[in-house]
Amino acid sequence: MNGQYKKTATHYFLLLLSLTVLGCSADDQATQASAMALNVEAGSAPEAVYSEARVAMSELLSTIDQVQAKFLQPSNGVHTADDIAEGQRALAHILETALYFWLESDPDRPVFKPYVTATRKLLGDNPDSIYYYAPIRDNGSYKISGNIGAAVFTSFTVEAGSFNGHAGRSSVGSLKDNDMLIAGDGSYEIIVSRVKPESGNWLALKDGASQITTRHYHEAKFSIAGDESAQMDIRIEALEPAPLKSNAGDQEVANHLRYVANFVRDHGSMSLLSPTEEAVAPLGWYSLVPNEFGTPGQWVSASGDQAYGNTHAYYNAANYELATDEALIIEGRLPPARFVNVVLWNRFMQSYDFSNRQISLNQKQIQYEKDGSFKIIVAHKDPGSPNWLDTEGRPTGNMYWRFVFPTEDPQAPTTRVVKFSDLNKELL
Predict the structure, then answer these.
(1) Among 76, 180, 255, 278, which one is least packed by beta carbons within 10 Å?
(2) Helices (H), 49-136
(3) Radius of gyration over alpha carbons of the chain, in Å?
């Protein structure tokens, strides 16, 4: 089908659809649509009105094409149709988040929005946490108010560099719950500003500050993020909001569509790029040796240009690789800590299906041995152990540990790959 024919066919279909909506009979529809289509092809239709928003939308679509062309390729470890499909879904989640955050964003009047959900995931989500995001200006002043609720850990992080939809480049401020004044009923208020208030909680702003990320970790038998109704009591308001402006029309929509494109481009390069030794070396705690953990470490041990990490936690990560008839046994002891969990991710830092499967375990969910140690099984099917992490049949993936405020340095767990058929005697 050549381009001119496709164009004519498209016009004809749209005109026929319009006449159907108007209630014309089938014969009238065909006659009128044919005549109108001929007029369109004869050049009687008016020229399209120029719109900057139209241009920006085309740029957004082009950005999506560029991101998938760059990263969903064999050179980035993407070799199969399933690999591509997983990457496309990750890219779609990034786009959905970009639209949710930036199409209607206003740093002068920010609103906290959930960072991830059970069906929209990016940047290494945690089934045992609720996250919020709000855009801000580094010269603004804001008040955050809320209640810690049942969270075992609450924190606020300021990232720099994420203006106009770009990805954060560094963490430039943080405030954790044990440094906050919190009322007996769990309520709190925080001033976010350049100048420290005379009293109360303060989250300092520095040059380039552009967003606030909140973390609300929970430890319970049921992972909090799997509860679609779960949300935190939290809000943010500008203390000195800029005057409201008249609707900027075409240019305003175009600007925001370009913010969306910036988010897709920057987060695509962060989330879809296959990790390399060079990339993970600054972290120190991310092992690229399959089925083998390295030494846990803190996020702050990474170089200063890292953003989005919980600066109050230790981490430990490794990839698993298992054949269909294999399972991985992870053994060790948890350090006393306020929060610990382990999560299975795909290669694009998205957790598996925690709404319907057990793909993570926290301290309250793990069943321990008599001596206090743990034995966790990563397997493609149920081994009959309560500490099973379900791979969903995925032959490869990532295992990610978090330790918040451990009272002693976490130790790397030991691992060994065994035949699934041998698990019964291994678990005795």
Answers:
(1) 278
(2) 52-71, 81-102
(3) 26
